[in-house]
Amino acid sequence: MHSHTRTLLTIVTEAALEGTLVRDLDRLHAHGYTITDARGKGNRGVRDAGWEASANIRVEVVCDAETAEAIAASLQEQYYDDYAMILFMSDITVLRPQKF
Amino acid sequence: MHSHTRTLLTIVTEAALEGTLVRDLDRLHAHGYTITDARGKGNRGVRDAGWEASANIRVEVVCDAETAEAIAASLQEQYYDDYAMILFMSDITVLRPQKF
Amino acid sequence: MHSHTRTLLTIVTEAALEGTLVRDLDRLHAHGYTITDARGKGNRGVRDAGWEASANIRVEVVCDAETAEAIAASLQEQYYDDYAMILFMSDITVLRPQKF
Amino acid sequence: MIDPVILFFVLGAVAGLLRSELRLPAAVYEFASIVLLLSIGLKGGIELARQPFGNLLPQMLAVVALGLALSLIAFPVLRHLGRFTRADAASIAAHYGSVSVGTYAVAVAYLGSRQIAFEAHMPLLLVLLEVPAILVGIVLARGLSRETRWGSVAHEVFLGKGIVLLLGGVFIGWAAGPDGLASIEPLFFDLFKGILALFLLEMGLITAKQAGSLRRHGPFLVAFGIGMPLFSALVGTWLGWALGLSIGGTAILATLAASASYIAVPAAMRISVPEANPTLSLAAALGITFPFNVLLGIPIYHALSVWAHTFARG
Amino acid sequence: MIDPVILFFVLGAVAGLLRSELRLPAAVYEFASIVLLLSIGLKGGIELARQPFGNLLPQMLAVVALGLALSLIAFPVLRHLGRFTRADAASIAAHYGSVSVGTYAVAVAYLGSRQIAFEAHMPLLLVLLEVPAILVGIVLARGLSRETRWGSVAHEVFLGKGIVLLLGGVFIGWAAGPDGLASIEPLFFDLFKGILALFLLEMGLITAKQAGSLRRHGPFLVAFGIGMPLFSALVGTWLGWALGLSIGGTAILATLAASASYIAVPAAMRISVPEANPTLSLAAALGITFPFNVLLGIPIYHALSVWAHTFARG
Amino acid sequence: MIDPVILFFVLGAVAGLLRSELRLPAAVYEFASIVLLLSIGLKGGIELARQPFGNLLPQMLAVVALGLALSLIAFPVLRHLGRFTRADAASIAAHYGSVSVGTYAVAVAYLGSRQIAFEAHMPLLLVLLEVPAILVGIVLARGLSRETRWGSVAHEVFLGKGIVLLLGGVFIGWAAGPDGLASIEPLFFDLFKGILALFLLEMGLITAKQAGSLRRHGPFLVAFGIGMPLFSALVGTWLGWALGLSIGGTAILATLAASASYIAVPAAMRISVPEANPTLSLAAALGITFPFNVLLGIPIYHALSVWAHTFARG
Ligand SMILES: Nc1ncnc2c1ncn2[C@@H]1O[C@H](COP(=O)(O)O)[C@@H](O)[C@H]1O
Ligand SMILES: Nc1ncnc2c1ncn2[C@@H]1O[C@H](COP(=O)(O)O)[C@@H](O)[C@H]1O
Ligand SMILES: Nc1ncnc2c1ncn2[C@@H]1O[C@H](COP(=O)(O)O)[C@@H](O)[C@H]1O
Ligand code: NA
Ligand code: NA
Ligand code: NA
Questions:
Q1: What are the coiled-coil residue ranges (chains A, B, C) (predicted)?
Q2: Residue E56 counted as domain residue
Q3: Among partner residues B12, B43, B87, which is closest to A34 by beta-carbon distance?
Q4: Distance of residue A71 Cα from the nearest chain B Cα, in angstroms
Q5: What is the Å distance from ligand 5's center to E215 Cα?
């Protein structure tokens, strides 16, 4: 089995941003993404998903390292000041590299 | 605290596959798994979880590297052609290695 | 873009523990956490989230390595014997290290 | 006068096409479909208690034959005219040989608001029509191969949500009778059309999402999605008339024949014929046939039934 | 004639045992239980407004004593006959000293469809019975240790979902009175049995999942899960009769005594006595006692109550 | 006599302040708000069908002007007296120039239980009041800059869940008329107040969570959250009277003016004016103004309306 290294970029942010974020990801050449509903706490306080305004989403993007950095830089610039958001990256191994 | 390295295998696929997949994992010697509901986009288009047919699941299995490779190979062979599915692996540290 | 290494601690445990766990995390100096609803299987059998008593949560904490180890050790000591729970850690890259 | 539940479907479809942010939580959609399935089953069960079971046997057999026949007819059309792969043709054929509970519910609402009676055991025929096409679809795709694990296919088919709730409802209605059910009527009967309205709102939203796939998979699917139900409705009308059903019952049977499954069959095909592309069958069944039946088909099938009964008598 | 809501429970249990894919979304289950809890509270509150509170005090105290007594009796049986660990015995005892709101709702439906009246303040007794057994359970497991954080135990117990909704309902019913509530009757009263039916469908599915643990933990749990409620119902019948309750009221009190908690107590024990194995208590309370009470127990307890009143009078 | 739906709000708020574990699943909250929005729209639509549209035009224009005016008045107060940043002042002003559907529903329930009639096209005015303040808010924050993508703002505003369901309901009610809707009345009309009760229970829980932010952001927000609705209600009462509305209609218009949005506007501001701190506007609109209106405001606005009509006549 041939395996290849890619980057997993994880974003946790406000659910209100989902539509915009998904458009950004397309524009920034992500080949795909996975979203789950989440709640949490951070600098901007507790976001307990009790209703729309306090819900989070957790978005994962598998891509190559450059794309991940480009996406991270772009999101950080656009959203970090005004939105509850964290970003982190890790190295992963994938089986079908052409997909990502 | 003694810590040990294991592999985290993450699978994102169609919710319709949950029953079969769980049986596969048992058969392939996974000691456990964790599932969350998800939505996303990939080669097979947008899967927005609006209803059963378009819902995804995100499955995580913590196991040793050989088991992870065996599971990944088996799932890839059985499902990659016909189902929306991605797989990736990463190294993690666990505390109670005998559990996995 | 300057990037920095942190630790991602992931905990999967019983939903009934959410309140207590969140207080523990605050006490143990986590700056934040992200929670998603989950189901799964492990040593303590199938937990299918059919109702409150069998639901899991999946908690992620981004922090520095020492904090992660301290949290892991504390949770392991308090909860491992009596609760369905797994813990694992991995290295990640973050952009704004001061947040975590 | 147009039934308001249809307008909810239109609202959902328009909102979806305009890319509105309207979305029903999945739990609400499931709640609506659980209540509808139980409610349809309960109504059937109440009436089953009133008539000897033996009388129904011929109708039940005829309806199973109908399901088999419709999928066997659809398959070659899809394979040769539509040039679909074997698996795709088999899967789409199974969808059209089976039935849509949502379409059935709209037909019931249509007849109800016109006070047209129909045979009360229709939910039983609905259940019977759901299954055979699935088996045909699998055999068409795979041949009668030894590898097919019929045990797990049967499990998938008979223990799926839809059948369990419909048959469970029939059983409870039959065992408890109309008086016994009085106490649960407010939820299962009085709210029926309101909940159908919410269900159709969501169906409209889902339908709108099929628009993209339709554009991609071209005009054959559109033609098939309208032509096949019209043809099936003719067969269903003839069968209803031949079985001696009332005007209302014939219209319902024609609607059942014309409808295409989008719940039980997709789920079964996904597991049993995974190489079939689910986008194709859903685009046809949900994107074309469901709205066609709901907006235009049901009145047409009603007219067909009236015409068949008048013609036959005269 | 069997109540249809019971048939929903049977449907769920059978579907679960056959490993059907039927599943109610968690949100639907929670919706049903929220409406049931509020509805039971509201009904109690309406009636509370009608009678002087002082009259009820003796009954309230008696019922608290009942909860304490039942768990204190269950504990040594579990510890010595059942050979459970101290924590497990304490936890199971707490479940059986407390009550199940679902069982109460079925008893109310049972009496309602037979038009048997009962004292209207029963929901208040229900609330009172829920709590003391939890405290007993904790003390039995831990002793009166200083370490127990009673503040957070009290918070857990009194501010849990169940108690807040029941007491909140009682308060709203009492403050608004029957006329004030007329406008919300369609949801909370008319739909009561329909929503109870959905709730029991899900309870059937959950119950079926306990089958595995039961097989593992053997015949003692089964015997206890039937014997304990029968014994508790005798005590409850005697107490109801001694307090001068009507036949219906005595039957309800016997049912409350016989029922075992599967919501409030498991949640509290999980936090306060974590070393107790939750599988054991749920297998007994949900897998045995709940279906036993719902299918056989309630008619038995009703008969017991009739017998006690006849016997006493004669 | 206090309306029980208000008591559900109080129950939620108290449970929240005591940190109870009571929580409604998000799907239940969404279900309740979907049914309420559709129901309000349907009622409006039915009545729209009864009167010539032309008559309403002046009222519609006046109400748009009202929305614009209220946000333009609030802005300088917030900017200079409250010392908020430009973005925050603009965003809060937009919330107060727009309306809260929940408050509207409580006002309707209030008048209903007192059998006070009001003009039936109020839902239309509700929709019209929702939008203009959002546009004002964006312009106040950004200026009339070229960069604002008005296309996507319009999409966000007009295709948001609230407007689509309200307008969709109006359209369906208008097209189907009262007879057509009879079949869906049990869900959308009979359950209205029960579902409103559940909605308010959740609103109480959400409101309680604003307490923390309020403590942090000080007394100005509290004063504004009470003073602004009182002022707006005066303007609304005057406008209702000037437009010749009935007592009930005037009270509703005053309530609409006094209410502050917590659904449509927060969502729009989050996307279009992201630098505004959403905690501030929600703390004021949800933490102060909503409970103030629901508990005290509506009776005051009703009294204002009676007074205005008496004064004018005398
Ligand atoms: N240290 C952390 N670990 C895990 N998740 C976090 C952390 N900090 C923030 N989050 C998540 O990111 C969201 C936004 O973070 P913030 O912008 O810091 O409020 C929070 O609501 C959490 O869900
Ligand atoms: N590059 C990616 N990053 C993250 N998730 C992905 C990616 N590609 C696919 N997925 C997820 O995997 C599912 C199936 O992928 P696919 O088979 O490519 O359609 C999608 O619906 C997404 O949820
Ligand atoms: N090997 C594993 N891989 C992934 N998730 C696991 C694994 N083992 C346990 N889990 C998760 O952790 C929960 C508690 O585990 P346990 O204490 O082993 O029962 C399970 O319900 C699963 O959700
Ligand atoms: Na068909
Ligand atoms: Na008991
Ligand atoms: Na306003």
A1: none
A2: yes
A3: B12
A4: 16
A5: 24
Residue D186 at interface with chain F, using a CB cutoff of 8 Å: yes
The interface predicted TM-score (ipTM) is 0.93
Contacts of D172 in chain E (CB under 8 A): 4, 7-8, 11
Distance, in Å, from the CA atom of F206 to the CA atom of F286, rounded to the nearest integer, reads: 8
The 3-class SS string of F288-307 reads HHHHHHHHHHHHHHHHHHHH
- Asked whether residue B1 carries a pLDDT value surpassing 70, the answer given is no
Residues of D in contact with F31 (CB under 8 A): 25, 27-28, 31
Task: Please judge whether B42 and A99 are an interchain contact, meaning their C-beta atoms are less than 8 angstroms apart.
Answer: yes
Q: How many Cβ atoms sit within 10 Å of the Cβ of residue E1? A: 10
Q: How many CB atoms lie within 10 A of CB F19?
A: 11
| Domain interval for residue B75 | 4-94
Q: Does E181 touch chain F (CB under 8 A)?
A: yes
Task: Using the atom order of ligand 2, give the atom closest to the CA of residue A34.
Answer: 23
Has residue D13 been placed in a domain? no
E152 interfacial to chain D (CB closer than 8 Å): no
Strand, coil or helix: what is D119? Answer: coil
Position D51 pLDDT exceeds 80:
no
Size of interface D-E (CB pairs under 8 A): 87
Does ligand 3 have an atom closer than 6 angstroms to the CB of B26?
Answer: no
**Closest atom of ligand 1 to CA, residue A80:** 17
B40 lines ligand 2 (CB under 6 A): yes
Query: Model confidence at B97, in pLDDT bands (50, 70, 90)?
Result: confident
**Residues B7 and B68 sit within 8 Å (Cβ to Cβ):** yes
Dig out the tokens for F306 from the structure: 């009676």
CATH number, residue F46: 1.20.1530
Backbone φ and ψ of C41, nearest 5°: -145, 145
The residue type found at A100 is: F
Instruction: Name the CA radius of gyration of chain C, rounded.
Output: 14
- C53 in a structural domain: yes
CATH number at residue B20: 3.30.70.120
Chain C residues with CB-CB distance to A38 below 8 A: 34-36
Whether B and F touch (3+ CB pairs < 8 Å), yes or no: no
According to the model, what pLDDT value does residue F314 have? 61
In this structure, which ligand is nearest to the CA of A97? 2
Kindly report each contact of residues F59-63 with a partner whose C-beta sits within 8 Å and lies 24 or more positions away, as own/partner.
F59/F121, F59/F125, F59/F243, F60/F124, F60/F125, F60/F128, F62/F239, F62/F243, F63/F125, F63/F128, F63/F129, F63/F239, F63/F253
- For residue D146, is it within any domain? yes
Beta bridge pairs of residue C58 = C12, C36
* Residues in a beta bridge with C85: C13
Domain tally, chain C: 1
Token pair belonging to D239: 């069968």
Cβ partners under 8 Å of residue F133, min gap 6: F67, F68, F70, F71, F93, F94, F95, F96, F97, F98, F261, F265
Query: Taking the model in full, what pTM does it have?
Result: 0.93
Give the pLDDT confidence score for residue D246 in this predicted structure: 95
Residue C95, C-beta contacts closer than 8 angstroms, at least 6 positions apart: A72, A76, A87, A88, C1, C2, C3, C4
Containing domain of residue E229, as a range?
A: 26-309
Say if D284 falls within a structural domain: yes
CA closest to A19 among chain B residues: B48
Instruction: Pinpoint the alpha helices (H) of E77-182.
Output: 86-97, 101-113, 122-130, 132-142, 150-158, 161-181
Structural domains of chain E, count: 1
In the predicted model, is pLDDT for residue D105 greater than 70?
yes
| Residue A82, domain member (yes or no) | yes
